[in-house]
Design brief:
There is one protein chain. This protein has helices at 6-34, 41-67, 99-114, and strands at residues 70-77, 81-88, 91-98. Helix 1 (6-34) runs antiparallel to helix 2 (41-67) and helix 1 packs across helix 3. The longest helix has 29 residues, at 6-34. It is α+β, with helices and mostly antiparallel strands and 119 residues long. A hairpin with a 2-residue loop joins strand 2 and strand 3 (91-98). It has one domain. It has a three-stranded antiparallel sheet. This is YhjD.
Length: 119
């Protein structure tokens, strides 16, 4: 049973997903920059604007976590699972995440930051 409230746990999960999303967007940006698109700049602008939005959200998340004495740390990773240590008000909990679940959630967030946030 977890002692971390669901709202705080969701914020801690954001601290997992947002850096992953920044890594994905950064790699995609590099691919677009070296690609053979005739008009690269709109794609570059889209990715860079999405990165700015993700960075702003990550900054807010980190600030919230700092104010509420919350920390997260990756402990272990294998081919199927990644384990994180969640620290909240002195409580420590280990949470295992199925790697395909992490990937799927990152994909959902990527869709949101690229185009769904405008609707």
């Amino acid at each position: 049973m977890t002692r971390i409230p669901e709202i705080q746990r969701d914020i801690m999960e954001k601290a997992i997903y947002l850096p992953m999303l920044l890594t994905i967007l950064n790699r995609d940006l590099q691919v677009v920059k070296i690609s053979n698109f005739k008009l690269k700049q709109p794609y570059i602008d889209l990715i860079e604007n999405s990165m700015k939005a993700v960075q702003l959200e990550f900054k807010k998340t980190k600030s919230y976590m700092y104010r509420h004495t919350m920390k997260i740390q990756e402990v272990n990773r294998d081919e199927a699972f990644t384990m994180f240590l969640f620290i909240y008000n002195g409580y420590e909990e280990f949470h295992n995440y199925f790697n395909p679940r992490l990937r799927n959630k990152a994909q959902e967030l990527l869709e949101y930051y690229l185009y769904k946030r405008f609707h």
